[in-house]
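Q: What would this chain look like folded?
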Amino acid sequence: MSDSQEVHEPIPEAMLRRLERVERAYGRLLRTNRLLLIGLAVLLGTAAATVVTLALRLPPAPGEVVQARSFALRDAKGRLRGVFGMATNGASQLVLQDESGHARLRLIVLGDGSPGLTLIDQKGRSRAALGLLPDETITLAFADRQGISRAALGLTARQAASLALADSNGVTRAGMGVAADGKSTVTNLNGPGGSESVVPQ
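A: My prediction, written as structure tokens:
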């Protein structure tokens, strides 16, 4: 059979209803992943602002620093290599820096108790982030060298698991999901105007 030939077979009503349920479930997973990525971006922005604020408040002379709201770690040459402290928004955080003063690892607990961990490259881009939200949704996200999110693994409070994979523009192209009841989907998106396939498992 050639590629130009089409085969039309009636699709059972039960299968159509099941496909619609799968598409709705996948849409909810995508929205959850987007919200988690936005939450992580806000978390990272807050952490960066806090680091700058804390760094500006540190005394210029190297040495041991013990304060009620922050602790600073300096190397033998007086360079700031880490900060542990409280932000004005109630978040506590630990930021470790390289010899050039660039933040490379950030561990934070927000005022609402949400913890997060971020790995940062030499250019200041977040490359990996792990976050746990108050509703117990957890996400692990990976970004490429340009800082664009390319993969996200998530588990919602309702125990639905998902994996979303994006292209170099950050557009989701493939995904997998497993609902709490064990029903799974695999989705392939081939871009604008391209094909989309949803395979219920």
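The first strand starts at residue 65 and ends at 66.
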